[in-house]
């Protein structure tokens, strides 16, 4: 692994994990996908994906399944045309399912809304008509920063319907982060809300977007949903209320087909260096894989299941497994606006009980939080409707996996630990619940039609029991099509590491166990994973050095029992700056303002020196040893080997 290896040491106990859980016979017998799919996917990958693409309605059939001639720029379902939104909405209504609830929306303060597929069609049509009235045309970019309210989903689908490219920015991101994303994509419209409910109280949202849009000349209009009724500042001519513009629109809208490779959305994610990358996804291949994986991995039965994914639409999981996967499959799902402990720590279990949720998909960090709150809380609710549990976002430690199965899944439900990324667009490695004998902590095996390998530095596949880098050695339908406006960065970031072999470098470490199953070990680059959110060490370092008192900063992700990793910053103050009691708080708050509260360091340690190699590279490995209270590792490559002593002694005298 590299010097900056971000491997999560909490997973060291993997080698001793040997529990295996076979699927129940009745579950396997009724499962959507059986073991034969693996052979089909390998025997003829393109034929396999063509069959999955037939899950969708195409206006024009494709001429070629995959065009990889210009690798790493892929084209899937070449020549095919479809409308993504019509596939998620209209066709279900046309099939007579208009009365089926698409979304049981649950507001944090207790309000709720049941939206049928027929309602969804009306709302998306009205929104599309409004966006057309605002002069937007296919290919234009629309930024969306919204809480988890139905209008967020209407907005995404209206964009898809019109061939507009949405760029959803997580509600917790700062105005600076929103501004840079709007600028990078040159968005013409921003959709937001006056405020949002968070932890039982209304909090402003438009204040944040106003700060961003004060400096974004590309934005012509800001469309504002009234959610909390709080005071907002208003810019006449630019700002428009949703209820004034959308509500009066016609309830029908004719969807036009778009090319399979028409851009669907951009989603920004942290990379190792520089600004966040605008990951670009397109239409036909993306929807095919989002739809198929949702059907296969969750064993989805749209007639009877009630599905709930707890992600936010600001992340890829919300895109693929709240909006596009589930809606293309016509299932009924729960969408919850708020925090899991508002008004009490049993809120999720109460929602599962009330709506008879049968498939629940969440993140390890939340499972560990539930563990902290205590098993007696889920025990108070009737969770017997659950039949599949999912996990995503970071490696799940075996203890959390077992707790999840015992306390939420009644020792009965299969758990699918799904590995994928913003870049992969959809799930890549995961058990199939009716086939796989699951192992706590392992994502296990590439899905049918997908190929993944663990390789060494040279790109040679390691043997059973061996560890190395995770690569994807075959193109897949929902793969990113590039980084918005930066083809070179796309090639460099993902395809240069194993250029001769044509492997996609995922940035994750992984190993095979004795059966050849894959265990993910965390990032091998400078990307941290905090509560399943990707944040790069460089981003936080830049935020810190932008503060006038900071001379230099080095940031590491230290293992954390709840959040997976916690951000620990080592900061050298400028000569004249004297640390006092408020310095640490000021710097933590500064990072929250610059990037967003999710990036707020868990600890800021003021030091006099940083450990560097002779070439000036900061040795984060050593800082991580300090942050995790371990004995300091090998310091022989340090330019000045006394530095670590200085840091350790300095810390002891300040704490
Ligand atoms: C990590 C989230 C282990 C991994 C869908 C990846 C995981 C990054 C898992 C992508 C998992 C996600 N097991 N690690 N099941 N799922 N990761 O782009 O490091 O927000 O590279 O996509 O999360 O994060 P992203």
UniProtKB/TrEMBL annotation:
Keywords annotated in UniProt: Acetylation, ATP-binding, Ligase, Magnesium, Metal-binding, Nucleotide-binding
Binding-site list for ATP: 393-395, 417-422, 508, 523, 534
Binding-site positions, CoA: 198-201, 317, 341, 531
Highest taxon listed in the record's lineage: Bacteria
Swiss-Prot/TrEMBL GO biological process terms: acetyl-CoA biosynthetic process from acetate
Domain AMP-dependent synthetase/ligase: 96-484
Gene3D superfamilies: 3.30.300.30, N-terminal domain of ligase-like
Cofactor: Mg(2+)
Domain AMP-binding enzyme C-terminal: 539-617
InterPro entries for the chain: Ac_CoA_lig (IPR011904), ACAS_N (IPR032387), AMP-bd_C (IPR025110), AMP-bd_C_sf (IPR045851), AMP-binding_CS (IPR020845), AMP-dep_synth/lig_dom (IPR000873), ANL_N_sf (IPR042099)
Task performed by this protein: Catalyzes the conversion of acetate into acetyl-CoA (AcCoA), an essential intermediate at the junction of anabolic and catabolic pathways. AcsA undergoes a two-step reaction. In the first half reaction, AcsA combines acetate with ATP to form acetyl-adenylate (AcAMP) intermediate. In the second half reaction, it can then transfer the acetyl group from AcAMP to the sulfhydryl group of CoA, forming the product AcCoA.
PANTHER family, alphabetized: ACETYL-COENZYME A SYNTHETASE (PTHR24095), ACETYL-COENZYME A SYNTHETASE 1 (PTHR24095:SF14)
Protein name: Acetyl-coenzyme A synthetase
